[in-house]
Amino acid sequence: MTRLGWQRALLLLPFILVVWWLFAILAGWWAGRGPAQKVQANAQQRALGRYLLDAADCAACHTAAGGAPFAGGVPLHSPFGTIYGTNITPDPEHGIGRYTADDFYHALTRGEARDGHQLYPAMPYVSYKSMTRADSDALYAYLMNQVAVNQANPSNDVRFPANIRASLHGWNLLFAGADASPVSQGNSPAWQRGRYLVETLGHCGECHSPRGVLGQVDRDRPLAGNSELGRFAAPDITPQGLAARGWQGASLREYLATGASGPAVASDEMLKVVSLSTSRLNAADLDAMTIYLLGDAPPAPGTLADASGGPDGAAQRHYFNLCAGCHGRDGGGVPNVAVSLRANSSVRDSSPHNLIVAILDGLPEHDFPGLARMQEMPGFGADLGDAEIAALATWLRQQFGGQPAPVEAAAVRELRRDL
Amino acid sequence: MTMLKLKINGQDFGPIDVPEDMMLVDVLHEYLGLTGTRFGCGQGECGACTVIVDDTRGPREVRSCITGAHYFSDKPIRTVEGHATRDAAGKISALSPVQQAFLDHFSFQCGYCTPGFVNAATVLLERLAKSPVRKEELEDTITEALNPHLCRCTGYVRYYQAVKQLVLGTPGLIKP
């Protein structure tokens, strides 16, 4: 090409870009249109869809408190900003009314909406990518036969540069491909089913697996716990982590089914998971989840070592003054009032994170799907200083949790809400 | 057993030998004869056992049925017995404004929850004296303050009305 030809081509470049840009807008608009879909589904298909919807815990992010079912608007706070669960009712304007079964499967497993925009990975498509087409179709059939709600989606509040949705193509290329390695050893049919329920539908790893700096799940340490996402940490639920805190198949299964098992009760986000999802699973699937989480050959539960390091007068006084009124002098708790602290899963945890947060903030009243209840716990962040809470947590962990390591005051300071 | 000194309604008590895990309400009842504070649910939920603590963060409500007596060793307490004005002989000469308002409005029936409501409303009035609210915020403020207190005779409306009228009739509690 001559020198003149190059210059002409360069002059044409802005024009080409503008045309391309207009074309992209038009294509997006065109793709976003299309007829509203009508989907026939019999009672059996709908029942299966509803079951899968519970197993995949769609309502947690797509049904707002007090809002219409699946109409979206649930804020999800992430290190990158606040993302809202969207309207997934069959409304053609704001929901998924124009989605075909293909579009739906593509969005669920690839994280790309019908109009071509990339979903944020707050939508767990990285977990859902291994969902079967049949399950996707059943979910689709159920959702498309719900009441359409004409409710606009709130705009997300995601910080730059994460708010450039196109950058998610790169993120997906790097992180969305490979499967998480299984958390336990096993091969039985129940274990296989459990893997699908835990890793794919239940997307447990989205909260329980550690994440890297770009928010990607660390595939080498599946379900090893994550303290970065919420106020409370999602604990280590590997077979070793569970066994160390005394979990066995029977107690884990009861916890998933009812939200409470002995000295362990679900709180915060996990209470929501149990209420909306795991408590609605059938017996075989509860077995399967438990078998997958602990493995075909579950490790023996850890025994509660006697770690009490002698009397700590001050910490014990705090316990009698502020805790014993509900949890009892011996830490045994009161049924349906205050949880037992003896062998309590959070007190036994190698990390004191959740124990400290509970002492600082308190806990709201709990109503468990299994009809058990726990009353509100007041927070003691204003009553006790960092060193006092550290001493109290240390004493509790030694007395009731078999954890000898002292809790540092710095750990409490870090977790104070106002810092 | 551990020795305990308390300051209740301006009066010093003790030292008395009190078990280290005994709750304040039991000490008030069993050791000091101050039976006006009620034991209700025993779980800190109903508010009948509420006392007022006047420490650096006070005046504030504390549930005496779930708080160990030794917690109060360095914290002055007010109980329902301390609100009325008494003459030289110790006889009650005038009720506190909150107590009088509850009587005037027939706020309570069985009266079991009343000591808790008196203390909660007293704390609210003292708070409003320091930081008044706008008139349109008053009802929400009262609801927020009294909501944790349960009345099984369901006298809530008359409790709330009594407090509202008292606040409106007391200079300085409403932002001009």
Strand content of chain A: under 5%
Q: In angstroms, what separates the terminal alpha carbons of chain A?
A: 64 Å
**Helix and strand composition category of chain B:** alpha+beta
Q: What kind of sheet is the major sheet of chain A?
A: 3 strands, antiparallel
Order of helices and strands of chain B: EEHEEEEEHHHH
**Rg from Cα of chain B:** 16 Å
Helix content of chain A: 40-55%
User: What overall geometry of chain B do the principal axes of the alpha carbons give?
Assistant: globular
Strands side by side in the biggest sheet of chain B = 4-3-5
- pLDDT averaged residue by residue of chain A: 91
Count every helix of chain A, treating DSSP H or I runs of 4 or more residues as helices. 18
Overall pLDDT score of chain B = 96
Care to count the β-strands of chain B? 7
Q: Name the poorly predicted regions of chain B.
A: none
Helical proportion of chain B? 25-40%
Major β-sheet strand ordering of chain A: 1-2-3
Query: Main sheet of chain B?
Result: 3 strands, antiparallel
Write a structural description.
The complex is a heterodimer of chains A (419) and B (176). Chain A has helices spanning 3-32, 43-55, 58-62, 101-110, 125-128, 133-143, 167-175, 189-201, 205-208, 239-244, 249-258, 268-276, 283-294, 313-327, 345-348, 353-361, 386-400, 409-415, and strands spanning 75-78, 81-84, 157-158, 260-261, 264-265, 366-367, 373-374. Chain A is mainly α. In chain A, a hairpin with a 2-residue loop joins β1 (75-78) and β2. The termini of chain A are far apart. The mean pLDDT of chain A is 91. With 176 residues, chain B is an alpha+beta fold. In chain B, α2 crosses α5 (156-169). Chain B is globular and about 50 Å long. The interface between A and B is medium-sized, with 16 and 13 residues.
